[in-house]
Amino acid sequence: MRAVVLTKFGKSDKAFQIQERDIPVPENHEICVKAEAFGLNFADVMARQGLYDDCPALPAVIGYEVVGRVHAIGKDVKDFEIGQRVVSLTRFGGYAEYAVADARAAILIPDEMDYCVAAALATQYATAYYCSAYTTQLHEGEHVLIQAAAGGVGTALVQMAKNKGCIVYGTASSQKKLDYLKELGVDYPINYKDTDFEEFINKTSGKKAIDVAFDSIGGNSVKKARRLLANGTGRIICYGAASMSGKRKSIPRLLKLVFGFGFLPSVELLLKSQGITGVNMLQIADNRPEALKVCMQEVSKMVVEGKLKPTVGGKFSIDELAEAHDFLGNRQSIGKVAVHW
Ligand SMILES: NC(=O)c1ccc[n+]([C@@H]2O[C@H](COP(=O)([O-])OP(=O)(O)OC[C@H]3O[C@@H](n4cnc5c(N)ncnc54)[C@H](OP(=O)(O)O)[C@@H]3O)[C@@H](O)[C@H]2O)c1
């Protein structure tokens, strides 16, 4: 089979090589999927840039999700049959024609579901669901701040928050993305390149207006969100550090990021009745695979029912992988980006 191997960190057109590999054999609890497509995630961009600590040692086949048909089944797997169409979360290995996945991290999908829509479910929509409906709950009328709201996870969070009747503040870096956010129903689209989102929210809705902040930027963005947080209800879900992207990894930069987050004594959270939660879906996949399955099943159900609508941001062929990476990494993409074989 063909696999796209990350052989060195750096520019998208030099980092990957297509190599022949053996088709992987599933362990007892796994399935092997013959992929028609795989999804791109921002973590892939960070991995290519050498900024992603969870990335396996090079040479590595990265990739978090594949869409395709079940090709082989481990002996303990009861809920899948060969030939069924699935999307599955791969713990790396997704950039390949065949990939193995824990059967608990795979869901059946209808034949007619667009592969890019399906690819959005395993990582981006499951992450958004875990952040907004599993680790915490959103309530009608709550004021919710979503960073990088036009992205894959961002779009999912906006749809989930609007479904709950929340008032949504969504940040993005261009007018095109702001127009998209308006269409999605974001009440306050904010261009955080030219507008300080903290000042904007303070002016628009008053101090301590935010009940829930979803942060994928990291560093100072979290510190600002903390200052906006309502007493009694305020919670921040930190799930990314996109602000590190494009920068060389160095101790001073890491320290800036860490200090940017700020330090918050637990007693302050207690006194203000606030919470801060970190989310890393790899930890959920490793330690709570049944939670991941619930998240994937719930989002799949809501997509089939029309309650969630993943946005197809970009479809690329395997020969255009470098372009796909740049499209996502250079902040041009809206919604989901996927690559087909
Ligand atoms: N913790 C987890 O388990 C988990 C799981 C999935 C995703 N994530 C994180 O969630 C975030 C969204 O992931 P995604 O795959 O859906 O990606 P995405 O949101 O589609 O793309 C990333 C977005 O981040 C924004 N961004 C902010 N600073 C940036 C910078 N310096 N360079 C490039 N982009 C920057 C850009 O939006 P603007 O142009 O609008 O700023 C960009 O479009 C990422 O930070 C990712 O690492 C975490």
Helix-strand blueprint:
Layout: E1 2-6, H1 12-15, E2 16-20, E3 30-40, H2 42-48, E4 65-73, E5 85-89, E6 98-102, E7 106-108, H3 115-134, E8 143-146, H4 152-163, E9 167-172, H5 175-184, E10 188-191, H6 197-205, E11 212-215, H7 220-228, E12 235-238, H8 251-261, H9 266-272, E13 275-278, H10 281-287, H11 289-304, E14 312-317, H12 321-329, E15 336-340
Parallel strand pairs: 8-9, 8-11, 9-10, 11-12, 12-13, 14-15
Antiparallel strand pairs: 1-2, 3-4, 3-6, 3-15, 4-5, 5-7
Describe what you observe in this structure.
- The structure is a single chain.
- It is globular, with a radius of gyration of 20 Å.
- Strands 3, 4, 5, 6, 7, 14 and 15 form a seven-stranded mixed β-sheet that branches. A six-stranded parallel β-sheet has the order 10-9-8-11-12-13, with helices on both faces.
- Helix 7 (220-228) links the parallel strand 11 (212-215) and strand 12.
- Helix 3 crosses helix 4 (152-163), helix 7 runs parallel beside helix 8 (251-261) and helix 10 (281-287) packs across helix 11 (289-304).
- The longest helix has 20 residues, at 115-134.
- Helix content is 35%, strand content 23%.
- The chain has two domains: 2-122 and 289-340, Medium-chain alcohol dehydrogenases, catalytic domain (Quinone Oxidoreductase, Chain A, domain 1); 136-278, 3-Layer(aba) Sandwich (Rossmann fold).
- The chain has 341 residues and is α/β, with parallel strands linked by helices.
- It has helices spanning 12-15, 42-48, 115-134, 152-163, 175-184, 197-205, 220-228, 251-261, 266-272, 281-287, 289-304, 321-329, and strands at 2-6, 16-20, 30-40, 65-73, 85-89, 98-102, 106-108, 143-146, 167-172, 188-191, 212-215, 235-238, 275-278, 312-317, 336-340.
- It contains twelve helices and 15 strands.
- Bound molecules: NADP nicotinamide-adenine-dinucleotide phosphate (NAP).
- NADP nicotinamide-adenine-dinucleotide phosphate (NAP) is lined by residues 41-43, 123-124, 127, 148, 150-154, 172-173, 177, 216-217, 239-240, 242-243, 245-246, 279-281, 328, 331, 333.
